[in-house]
């Protein structure tokens, strides 16, 4: 009987470890996604591997690239906006194309 309690205690400790580390939560979420999938995949194991792979912590370098990409997108949008404004300003000072060819 003492052996059973020791195994049970180890199991409880392991369960608490899984809960603290977020493993149970992540597994539950992936299983719910699989359950709610209208067309079940042919390989449930591949589905789990794919979705768990996406849930793993990413390389810090990847996060830096994402931040850099977001910053570049903002700069790009600002440049496009500035370009539009400058084109509009330039159009005010340039005669229409038709008048240029008439001269």
UniProtKB/TrEMBL annotation:
Keyword Coiled coil: yes
Gene Ontology CC terms, in alphabetical order: nucleus
Coiled-coil positions: 62-89
Domain of life: Eukaryota
UniProt keywords, alphabetically: Coiled coil, Nucleus
Protein's cellular compartments: Nucleus
InterPro entries in the cross-refs: AMY1
MF terms (GO), sorted A to Z: transcription coactivator activity
Keyword flag Electron transport: no
CDD domains named among the record's database cross-references: ZIP_MycBP-like
UniProt cross-references to PANTHER family, sorted A to Z: ASSOCIATE OF C-MYC AMY-1, C-MYC-BINDING PROTEIN
Membership in a protein family: Belongs to the AMY1 family.
Protein's recorded name: c-Myc-binding protein-like
Gene it is expressed from: LOC101565401
